Amino acid sequence: MKRLASILAITTLSSSAFAAGIDSRSYTCSALHALIQERGFVFIGNPDFEDFVVANASFCVGGHLPQVRSVPTSDQPECPVNYCISASGPMGGSP
Q1: What is the pLDDT of residues 17-68, one digit of tens each?
Q2: Distance CA 68, CA 4 (A)
Q3: Residues of 64-77 as b/e, b for ≥16 C-beta within 10 angstroms?
Q4: Domain boundaries in the chain?
């Protein structure tokens, strides 16, 4: 019974950590790009950026388009990544 409780606790903690996303500052820029390419999309949960980043436009759906944004990594203060925005622009206007 104790073992089952331990397994459930670890699974719960692992799931909540995964749901919170990754911290881009824990990766080099090239390692972050490799992770995004491998998975297709990744949720980044940084204090200044909380959103999905995508490998390419095929991961943007519903009238969304990729746009480049920079996130900090362990080796660069600005590592360019793609994320999806509304085709009508981030504030509802033209892109």
Answers
A1: 445 799 999 999 999 999 999 999 999 999 888 999 999 999 999 989 999 9
A2: 44
A3: bebeebebbbeeee
A4: 22-95
